[in-house]
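Q: Can I see a sequence and its folded structure?
A: Here is a first one.
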Amino acid sequence: MDCIVVDGSQGEGGGQILRSSLSLALCTGQPVVVESIRANRPNPGLARQHLACVQAAAAISGGKVAGDALGSTRIELTPGPVKGGEYRFDVQSAGSVTLLLQTLLPPLMLAPSPSHLFLSGGTHNAAAPPANYLQEVFFPLLERMGVSAKLTLLAHGFYPHGGGELEVEIEPTQALRPLQLDSRGARRSLRASVLVANLPRHIGERELNVLRHAFDLDEVDISTVLADGPGNVIQARAEFEHLTEMFTGFGEKKKRAEAVARGVADGLGSYLRNDVAVGPNLADQLLIPMALAKGGSFTTGTPTRHTLTNIAVIERFFGPTFLVESEDARRTRISVRAV
């Protein structure tokens, strides 16, 4: 079987290219080489969270891998058949376990038997979907496509201390159903919540005040959670008839709580003003399931560089797969090409 060669420096140039390439190699059984991994990043090559993805991909398929070392800028994976079962993977840092799951989920949701995963590392990381985002936003859409996935947050893990753990149970399907998300439907609720770990509660109160002034919220909540180090996350959920969307901000040193919350307000406000179903992050995450389903479409805003890069990687495996059509200045339809 021909080996697929993917340029890891193309487009957005980050770890997503590696994760999507690994996932698609497992789904198709095609060997893959990813070159120039994160070549334009300040620290090129595999960090611990990327290495964990490579090694986990090999583990669930009994595959052969080369280049699986910290700092490596080239990996090669020759996958075997993906097998369900119980697996335990540790990122061994505060690196994101949800991005590790993003690598493993597509092949395991098509595996011949159920899977039970325990993933250790960071559960709430900037530039990664938080654990409850998967629970509330992504998994319900997968269920409509025929996959049952349940996520349990066993321990919170924030950057840079980590220490979090997820338990994930996956009931696979033999064939995915296409997903149509042309509109979001009527709005049902608008809610905001804050997580605070080892930090003063007033941080969360200040963040929620920003969202209260910006939106007519139906519900607000502050939760103090246990973690190995300090952490702060603010999330705004917009529940509609056809889906739920979520926008997240992460507290940072030397960044005021109000500034963190304004970032969330800007993201949510932009989404609510646009007549689209899917926000920018969800658009990126739906692409591989839609390609595997060989059908479906959704409306979103102007595609991000992440989304366009992910489309390019997917099309290295499947050939021309998606139509990206601008319907007006703020609305784009992304659909799977008819076979």
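Q: Show me another, different protein.
A: A second, unrelated one:
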Amino acid sequence: MHDIRAIRDEPQRFIDGWTSRGASDAAALIDEILALDAKLRAAQTAGQDALARRNAASKAIGAAMGKKDMAEADRLKAEVEGLKGEIAAQEAVEAEAGKALRDLLAAQKNLAADDVPDGADEAGNVEVGVWGAPRRTGPAKDHADLGEAMGLLDFEAAAKMSGARFAVLKGGLARLERAIGQFMLDLQTEQHGYQEVAPPYLVRDEAMFGTGQLPKFEEDLFQIATPAFRAQLELTATADVLEQFNQSGEMMKRLVNVISDLGPEEHHTSEVRGEFAEYRKRTVELAEQSIEIIRRRNFLREQEGRQSFLIPTAEVSLTNLVRESILPEDDIATPMRLTALT
């Protein structure tokens, strides 16, 4: 996720950087980004100004009432009502421009370092050095095949516990992974000036946004079934309840019409009374279920976007993920390298 402040300060750096990575018209893209940024900030300023004027007018109403100046009080009340609409309008513009700006920034590639060759993808890579010689005696075995053959990797057991894309490490391989992780932490913290952190394994979607995971790799991440997610599954399974309720209501109306045509209730047969009672009971049950579904849907709207993601092992960008969440505000601008065993 690019910092809009950096784009404001150095637009040409982003034009050059995105052009080197294959953007067709980076200058037009920068113009669009800055236009959205200006629209967003203008709406924020206008909204804040209207809010300040509304607050001042609200206070003045009390003063006018105290002086028995009803004409002035009425004028101020009308002004407050008008400002409410202006504030709402600016909030709508702010929300729309803010979302458009965030989506546009999230879709852009990162800027490459100065020594990285130009190119849109790995096809533009340049070989800068060679160590050793590639194996020529035949294709090398896959590490998964080697691990299973040596009894160090167990994909079947992992699948039973967690599903696909997991493996159980055993014996020496499990010990090797632990040792390599510890060696990395000790080396980076003791010799290279890194600060060790232990972030939570589960994070909300906004923490993963812009760290190299979201929005691009959302389908590849593991998500936790939150209450909102489980409620969504339940709603999917019972979505026909509302339709049944509507149908039952129509049947109730038809039954009432038939009973009305039959005349006074004392003339109704026991079959008609029983059928009417059954329809009424079923309609009440469906109405109660419908109310519960509406309550759950409201809950889902409140929880929208509140997913929990499992941090991918050895892939999370701790500088982005942890910096603004853990470091004190005064330290955010201080260059600091972070590392963790994930």
